[in-house]
Amino acid sequence: MPENATHSSQPITVGAGFIILLSALMALTSLSTDIYLPAMPMLGRELHGDAEQLTITGFLIGFTIAQLVWGPISDQLGRKVPLIIGMLLFIAGSVGCAISSSMTQMVFWRVFQALGACTGPMLARSMIRDLFSRSRAAAMLSTLMIMMAIAPIGGPLLGGLIIEFSSWPVIFWLLAVTGVMLLLALLTLPETLPEERRVRATFNGAFSNYFSLLKNGLFLRYTLSLTSYYMAIYAFIAGSPLVYISYYGVSPQHYGWLFAVNIVGVMLISTVNRRLVQRYPLDILLKTALSIASLAAILLTLAAGMKTGGIVFLAVMMFFTFSMNGVIAATSIAAALDEVPEFAGSASALVGALQYGSGIVSTGLLSLFSDNTPWTMSWIIGLFTTTGAMMVLTVKRRH
């Protein structure tokens, strides 16, 4: 049902098309990574390299650094122009990946692809904060997560289907075409940050906002909690192809279904969370979700350490850990941005940079300590999920 925004000088009608487009922008990161997960073993063989996980690391490095630049720019120029420029960079990077002939080239173009891809989820969050208050923003973010879950569900399934009948370059050509379609849709997007609410400082002054954000204790606590949880999430994303396909012998096509089960959990929990945020404080919801995720992650770690439970126990525990993302991401982001509404663009950039940059740590640890069993992935998930929970369990309750 359409709803008029409340923060803009000229109300913007928020209809189904607007929500779908924002969902697609937020899903761009997941699609860019998840769709080629089934092709990673093939990628390593055909590009004559054994560092295919670095294609994820490279993407996350570009994604993290670029957000810190785009955030202050969007606070000064508005949201629409950076989105359009970012989509052009994403298209160019996708084409570069498709024509790569070595692992070095692939990693380079993945970094380039990320320079543009990061504008989608970052500015979608900023636009929600431009238009809605704290609790309503959390509900809207939950709505977006329900719709954006199509990408991580369909991505591995589609990627597995493509490599069954073709090869990995087709995956990146498909991403390029997707970028073109989103670029055309962006031309119809309204600007949510009016002139009178834009930052008037110089770019150097705008970047100093990050120092102010880092001094805000509550903002930082919510942000670091999400960051720690996403270290666990990226450990699963990067480590699960090895565990499921190489260790347990699951086919690349069936791997997509195993991965999709977790995203279905995110969709279900996000649906429930849309109602919960209207009835309960965000902090209570966040603490509860992180506690559930931590318990499942600890059990997963213990089972992996004792080499018991098998693939079924691993999949069940990951379902509970991963699906809590439907509450954790929406509530922590809404709570963090609500602390600093005057710096929504910069704050969203910093949240996104730390959230997705956390994957750099995860993939680095996986590469460093991998023993070709589920153990390394499991202890990384257990460690960082519980760390994220500890960050918010001491936050003073807010109503």
CATH class: Mainly Alpha
The third-level CATH topology is Growth Hormone, Chain: A
Q: Supply the helix-strand structural class.
A: mainly alpha
What is the count of structural domains? 1
Stretches where pLDDT falls below 50 for ≥5 residues? 1-9
Number of strands: 2
Question: How widely separated are the two ends?
Answer: 27 Å
Instruction: Give helix and strand order, one letter per element, not per position.
Output: EEHHHHHHHHHHHHHHHHHH
Write a concise synopsis of the structure shown:
Belongs to the major facilitator superfamily. Bcr/CmlA family. With 399 residues, the protein is mostly helical.
Tags for this entry?
membrane, mainly alpha, two-stranded antiparallel sheet, cell inner membrane, about 400 residues, xenobiotic transmembrane transporter activity, MFS_trans_sf, single chain, disordered N terminus, Growth Hormone, Chain: A, cell membrane
Task: Explain what this protein looks like in three dimensions.
This protein is an all-alpha fold and 399 residues long. It has one domain (13-195, 215-393): MFS general substrate transporter like domains (Growth Hormone, Chain: A, Up-down Bundle). Helices cover 78% and strands 1% of the residues. The chain contains 18 helices and 2 strands. It has helices spanning 16-34, 40-46, 54-77, 80-98, 103-117, 119-131, 134-148, 150-165, 169-186, 203-207, 209-214, 217-247, 252-276, 282-305, 310-323, 325-339, 344-369, 375-393; strands at residues 3-4, 13-14. It has a two-stranded antiparallel ribbon with strand order 1-2. A hairpin with an 8-residue loop joins strand 1 and strand 2. Helix 1 (16-34) runs antiparallel to helix 6 (119-131), helix 6 (119-131) runs antiparallel to helix 17 (344-369) and helix 16 packs across helix 17. It is globular. The relative contact order is 0.16. It is found in: Cell inner membrane; Cell membrane. It is a multi-pass membrane protein. Keywords: Cell inner membrane, Cell membrane, Membrane, Transmembrane, Transmembrane helix, Transport. The chain crosses the membrane at residues 12-33, 53-71, 83-101, 107-125, 137-158, 170-189, 229-248, 254-272, 284-305, 311-337, 349-369, 375-395.
